[in-house]
Amino acid sequence: MSLYCGTFFRRKSFWCYRLLSTYVTKTRYLFELKEDDEACRRAQQTGAFYLFHDLDPLLQASGHRYLVPRLSRAELEGLLGKFGQDSQRIEDSVLIGCSSQREAWFALDLGLSGTSFIGASLPKSEMEAELRGSFIKLRQAVFQLDSMDSSLLFTAQALLRWHDGHQFCSKSGRPTKKNMAGSKRVCPSNKIIYYPQMAPVVITLVSDGARCLLARQSSFPKGLYSALAGFCDIGENVEEAVQREVAEEVGLEVENIQYFESQHWPFPNSSLMIACHATVKPGHTEIRVNVRELEAAAWFGLDEVAAALRRKGSFTQQQSEASPLLLPPKLAIAHHMIKKWVEKQNCSSMAA
Question: Where is pLDDT greater, at 198 or 63?
C-alpha cells in the first residue's frame, strides 16, 4: 500500500510540475538552489560558468560586438588545475540564473581575494592567453553586448561586488559566510543574515508639453544629454523623490508624475532605476542649473530629439560624429523614456 501511495504522489507531483509555466518552474528551481546548499552544489556539477577578474567579465571580440564565453564545470576545473588551484575554488561562485532546461548559470571572479575567497588572485594576462579572451571593464563593453548577455553580466558583477564589500558583520565585526548560491551572507557568531541590496534611483523625463528637458554631467561624453536622475532619500516615496530631484537639479516644480518602467543598472554600484515622466507647472519653465550637480540642462524640441533618435550606427560610432545632440544608447532606460515621449508627441500631432 505504501509503495502504491508513493507512486501515486510521484505521478501527481510530476503532472503538477508539467502544468506549471516555464517561467514558474525556472523561478521555483532558482529558489530551491538559493535555499538548499546541497541542491546548488549539485547544480554546479552540470552548470555553466561566466568568468570575471577584479569584477571585469571575460569577453571575446567578434567584429564590432563582444561574445561572452561560458565554461563547463570540467573546463573550469581544468583551468584552475593549470594555475595550481583546487576545484573547491568553484564554491566562490554566485548563482545568476538558469536556462529553461534547468542548466544553472554561475559567475566566478578569479581576481578577487579576501577572507571569504578560498584562493588567491590568479594572473590576469596568463588566464587571458589561456582562455583566448580579455577581461574588459563592463562599462566599456556594455554597448557591444546583446541584451541577454548584458543582463546576466549586470547581475553577476553586482553580486560579486556586493560579496567582496560585505565580508564582515556590521554588528560583531567578524567574517560573514556566503551560502552556496551567493544569495545571502550569514554571521556565524550571531546568525544575522545579510541580503544583497540595490539603491533606488528615480530617473525623470520632464516635459512642458512641446519640449523635453535633458541634462548632462561633466563626466558624460561630449554632446550626450539624458534625463534627470538621483538617489531616493530615506523616508521618500517615488513621487517625492522625483519632485525633490527636479527642484534640486534644475530649479523647477513638476506635477502629473507617471511611472514608466524600471531597470537594474550596475554603474557605479547596483541601482534600481525607477523611470517616470513628469510635466513642469505651467508658466514655470525657466531652468536654473545646480552646477554642483550638472554641467548643463536645456529644453529640446520634438524635431531635434527625433532626429537624434534616428541616427544610425552604434553608440560608439555616433560619438565619433559631430552631432549637436547625442542621446543615451538603446540599452539605457533613458533612451526608452525619450523614445516614448517622441512617439506620444507624434501621436498627439496626428490627432490634432
Answer: 198
Amino acid, single-letter form, for residue 15 = W
Burial letters 187-201, b for 16+ CB under 10 A, else e: beeeeeebebeeebb
Side-chain-side CA neighbours of 115 within 13 Å: the count stands at 12
Band of the pLDDT at 12, cuts 50, 70, 90?
very low
Q: How many CB atoms lie within 10 A of CB 37?
A: 13
Report d(CA 203, CA 230) in Å as an integer.
7
* CA–CA–CA angle 208, 212, 217 (5° rounding): 130
The H-or-E segment that residue 98 falls in is strand 94-98
Amino acid identity for residue 148 in this structure = M
pLDDT band, very low/low/confident/very high, at 85 (cuts 50, 70, 90):
confident
Residue 64 DSSP code: T
List pLDDT tens digits, range 21-56.
Answer: 889 999 999 999 999 999 999 999 999 999 999 999
Of 54, 97, 91, 96, residue with least CA distance to 73 = 91
SS3 label, residue 105 = strand
Return the closest-CA partner of residue 330 out of 352, 304, 303, 311. Answer: 311
99 residue type, one letter: S
In angstroms, the CA 72 to CA 46 distance is 7
What does the H/E/C string look like for 296-349? EEEEEEHHHHHHHHHCCCCHHHHHCCCCCCECCCCCCHHHHHHHHHHHHHHHHH
Note the pTM of the prediction, 2 decimals: 0.84
Query: Distance of alpha carbon 8 from its chain centroid, rounded?
Result: 44
Q: CA–CA separation, 80 vs 77, rounded Å? A: 5
Nearest residue to 93 (alpha-carbon basis) of 49, 28, 45: 49
d(CA 318, CA 327): 9
